[in-house]
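user: can you give me the structure for this one chain? tokens are fine.
assistant: on it. calling the predictor now.
[tool input]
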Amino acid sequence: MKRTIIIQQADDGWYNVILGDRFSGSLSWDECLGVIAHLLVGGPASDVPLRGRMETIDEMEHRLTAEIRTEVERDLRPVDRLLLAAKRKA
């Protein structure tokens, strides 16, 4: 199976590894090499955890939305948390 792995360097010096519709996001050079080694040796379906995520745009948006929601809920006052929990049950 032929795969094309693309390495992009951003203007800020960080790297992005792209494989098909998946990308890693901002990585240091060492992390970039680790992702490439993982893809070449373990393959995309490997059971070995991948330190730098390879995700699609939709997966990234879902993850970031969940992270933002968690951050916002963490900063809520106790009374607001109770109101949010009651609203979710309804």
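assistant: here you go. Residues 61 and 67 are 10 Å apart (CA to CA). The chain has three helices and three strands.
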